[in-house]
Write a structure and sequence with these properties.
Elements: E1 6-11, E2 16-23, E3 26-34, H1 46-68, E4 77-83, H2 87-104, E5 108-112, H3 113-119, E6 132-137, E7 142-149, E8 152-158, H4 164-174, H5 181-189, H6 214-226, H7 229-232, H8 235-263, E9 268-272, H9 279-286, E10 294-296, H10 307-319
Parallel strand pairs: 1-4, 4-5, 6-9, 9-10
Antiparallel strand pairs: 1-2, 2-3, 6-7, 7-8
The chain binds 5'-O-[(R)-(carboxyoxy)(hydroxy)phosphoryl]adenosine and zinc ion.
Zinc ion binds at residues 113, 117, 138, 273-274, 305.
Length: 344
């Protein structure tokens, strides 16, 4: 047996089928297949996602191993997303991975997808130091977490309705910009005016760290209706709406993260998840590096769903013996798929 920890990791919780190989916590390959079948439906169709995962997962595994220069027999740990996500989609990756672990007689590590977004920041050369504030912004979740150590998280706030990415997707859809909406809004906002219109973000009385993004979506909807958008739309109008909307969302995320960093006296901040690919978000948060903070945002390829982040999370779970059951020669194939994130 090799003294290297070679991890084969799988992500299949939504519409990306992804397989990665890591050696001692370093990504050697990270193959991501974004399923295009969903585009014509304007959103992800769960049954199609499951079938596509099943159709492609074996060949992508071969590709990931080949690209990493590893044989299947070199693998000594298998990991997969076990929660949260589309249940059918998760089951494909999870069962494929567990079967592989059983066949190879190596340990299996189940990974929470949201934790994986959080720990994707550890794929950077320079790693965050504990304690840090983690902002996770994806299509399904928006969380501010105080991370005291590996897998010691305190959720400070979360969205009470739509996730940040979901708001981008819905607003883009209203303007006919396609799915997913985040990249389209990002691109158009670069040409637009952030001061064109003030789209309000709801303030929540019960928690200073919780978010609500459903109000801003409705306010964009009313703006489009009141201004007869379909008749008056122009490139400039769309760009300006994108810039103003994006500014409002990113500013809210930014203000709450700063509030948390100050309250807990934390200097290290991570921002991860699909929305962290946003160029305005990056510019806004990275400006904190000049103000005494250390901001970590994963590379673009690790922002949206990918198996590299599953692998790095499994790596830290394994080496820190989270749950205490991972030993190099015992098989731990007991992960059950879940829809919630109670285990966060
Ligand atoms: O993390 P992710 O790939 O999947 C989930 O776990 O949900 O995030 C997908 C979300 C989508 O809502 C997409 O619109 C958003 O990330 N996104 C962006 C950008 N790229 C992807 N949002 C804003 N700007 C972007 N450049
Ligand atoms: Zn995700």
């Amino acid at each position: 047996m090799t003294d290297k920890l070679n991890i084969l990791a799988f992500e299949s919780s939504c519409d990306e089928t992804s397989v990665a190989v890591l050696e001692n916590g370093k990504v050697l390959s990270n193959i991501i297949l974004s399923q295009e079948y969903h585009l014509k439906f304007g959103g992800v169709v769960p049954e199609i996602a499951s079938r596509e995962h099943l159709r492609r997962i074996a060949e992508l595994t071969d590709e990931a191993l080949g690209k990493a220069g590893k044989k299947i027999s070199d693998i000594n740990l298998v990991a997969a997303t076990s929660e949260p996500g589309l249940i059918g989609a998760i089951l494909i990756g999870l069962n494929f991975a567990k079967s592989l672990a059983a066949t190879l007689n190596v340990p299996f590590v189940n990974v929470n997808h949201i934790q994986a977004h959080l720990y994707s920041a550890f794929l950077n050369e320079k790693k965050p130091e504990f304690p840090f504030i983690g902002l996770i912004v994806s299509g399904g979740h928006t969380l501010i977490v105080l991370v005291e150590d590996f897998f010691r998280h305190r959720i400070l706030g979360t969205t009470v309705d739509d996730a940040a990415g979901e708001a981008f997707d819905k607003v883009a859809k209203m303007m006919g910009l396609g799915y997913p909406g985040g990249p389209a809004i990002d691109k158009r906002a670069k040409e637009g005016d952030i001061n064109f219109h003030k789209f309000p973000i709801s303030r929540l009385k019960d928690s200073k760290y919780n978010f609500s993004f459903s109000g801003i979506k409705t306010s964009v909807l009313y703006f489009l209706r009141n201004n007869n958008f379909e008749q008056t739309k122009s490139e400039k109008l769309i760009n300006d709406i994108c810039a103003s909307f994006q500014h409002a969302v990113i500013k809210t995320l930014f203000d709450k993260v700063i509030l948390a960093a100050k309250e807990f006296g934390v200097k290290d901040i991570t921002v991860s998840g699909g929305v962290s690919a946003n160029s305005y978000l990056k510019e806004t948060f990275l400006s904190l590096n000049e103000k005494g903070y250390n901001v970590y945002i994963p590379d673009f390829i690790y922002s949206t769903d990918n198996a590299g982040m599953i692998g790095i999370t499994a790596y830290y779970k394994y080496i820190s013996a989270v749950d205490g059951y991972y030993t190099s020669d015992s098989l731990a194939v007991h992960a059950k798929p879940r829809l919630d994130f109670e285990n966060f």
